[in-house]
Amino acid sequence: MKNMIKNSSTAYQGYKIRRQNKPDDLLTDSNFGTPLGEYMRCFWQPVSLASQVTRLPKKIKIFNEDLVIFRDGKNQIGLMQLHCAHRGASLEFGVTQEAGGIKCCYHGIHFDVTGEIIEIPSEPDGGKRVMGRFCQPAYPTIERDGLIFAYFGNPDTIPEFEEWDSFSKENKTELVAFSNIYPCNWLQVIENIADQMHTATLHQPMSLYDGELPGEVDFDSFTLPSFSGIPVLDYHAVRDNTAMAFVAGRRMSEKLVWWRINECILPNLSHHAYLYEKGNARRVFHRVHMARWYVPIDNENSIIFGWRMFGPSIDPDNMGNMEQVGHDSIDFLGGQVAGSRTHKERQMLPGDFEAIVGQGEIASRIDEHRLSGDKGVVLFRKILSQALLNENIPLLASMMHLDPSNFFRSYSQNSILNIQSFSDGTKDRENIEAIGKKIIAIMASAPSAEPQRTDFVKAELEKLET
Ligand code: FES
Ligand SMILES: [Fe+2]
After folding, report:
1. Atom 4 in ligand 1: which residue has the minimum CA distance?
2. For residue 122, which ligand has an atom nearest its CA?
3. CA of 161 to the centre of ligand 2 (A)
């Protein structure tokens, strides 16, 4: 029989094209001593939900370091390397002390939460002779709104905690802590925020089905209706290239355009504008409903820690559900965590979790074929690379923390403004992009102190309407 199988340079190329499966170590390897590992260690990083830190020591892993975390009888948090500095017993089996610190189970060395030795009961002098000669390697911590943050860097240069304006608790805003576990490298999880294009497909799953929709699939809880259509995307490196602001503009009606700005901030923090926005009413400078840190457990596993913001000024439509916000759980859009869905259910209705984890344990960037909508991902990788290679002085962690009162001001927002549509669709999209750039310029020129900053931004945004 004559061979009728199509033969071209792009048909049936399975034999000729091999995936290289080579991770980009610079951006994905956070082990001690690597550029990424050293850079991430310069920032306060969330390591646990506060509710999971009790008198019973808990074994955790962050940056591929085996650690133990506990709360002593004085409500002090201890975060230490797991293996006792004496002969390596696991402090997971230690006993936290009413008077402070922890005693190792093996020979009873009593460490305080700084890792300093308080007493060695087996030594004739109680250990005085060796005190100051060795210690249990420990890390400083801060407890803040249900999260425990730790600093893994050089103890001679401990920075201030990054007090972003988005963490404000004004107007009865509550910060509710959560963690979401992702069995893959941290980078592909944060890159999902830089990939603003996927909302038009992954979060409109009905669009993937042609013909009859499968009845057993609950599309509604996996769909963001107001995110349909291809947005006008734009990308801005902001605050001396220390963050990328991603602008997605969408025409919602003849009169209304919605600009949504999310941010990825070096090294591993993101800010998200209110997700439940319907875009059907004017709303000016509506702020962040979530902050998330993407923390490597090791190179093949990561954990998101974050705060969901609740309150009348953040969630005016009362769409959130605080009860669903917690350990490996979140209250918006299906497919954010592994959950209890069957494999078939996850195949029929995948979410962010499936799209991210499905890329593999460490996604192979060399095998990508990037498209125009991937510009945000490319630019985030670029500023991260510059930071890791010390190519841009403001990206040094020490520089980012120089002026905390001025620096930590978020661009993230939803703004829905009265902007009359052009009859020419191309011209309309150009106008949406041009106004998006003006919004970024307004944010860049806004004063840093509140309430002047918010007042300024709102007034300037209103001017755009005229
Ligand atoms: S191994 Fe910990 S006290 Fe000896
Ligand atoms: Fe998503």
Report:
1. 107
2. 1
3. 28
Residues 185 and 126 in one domain: no
Confidence at residue 1, expressed as pLDDT on a 0 to 100 scale:
63
Say whether both 192 and 150 belong to one domain. no
Buried b (16+ CB within 10 A) or exposed e, 253-273: eeebbbbbbbbbbbbbbbbbb
CATH number of the domain encompassing residue 148: 2.102.10.10
Tell me the residue range of the domain where 144 lies: 41-157
pTM of the model: 0.96
pLDDT score recorded for residue 395:
65
* Nearest alpha carbon to residue 437 among 150, 224, 181, 236: 236
Hey, which of 82, 90, 97, 106 would you mutate to test ligand 1's pocket, going by the most ligand atoms within 8 Å of its Cβ? 106
**210 and 72 housed in the same domain:** no
Domain-ending residue, one of 113, 140, 157: 157
Neighbours of ion ligand 2 (CB under 5 A): 352
Of the listed ligands, the closest to the CA of 270 is: 2
Domain final position from 89, 124, 157: 157
Q: Flag whether 222 is in a domain.
A: yes
How far away, in angstroms, is 271 Cα from ligand 2 center? 13
Per the structure, the count of domains in the chain is 2
**Both 51 and 131 in a single domain?**
yes
Residues whose beta carbon lies within 6 Å of some atom of ligand 1: 84, 86-89, 104, 106-107, 109
Nearest-angstrom CA–CA distance, 466 and 462: 7
Same domain, 259 and 129: no
pLDDT of residue 194: 96
- Residues facing residue 67 across a β-bridge: 60, 81
228's tokens: 């349909």
249: β partners: 232, 259
Q: In this predicted structure, what is the pLDDT of residue 397?
A: 67
Which residues of the chain carry a pLDDT beneath 50? Answer: none
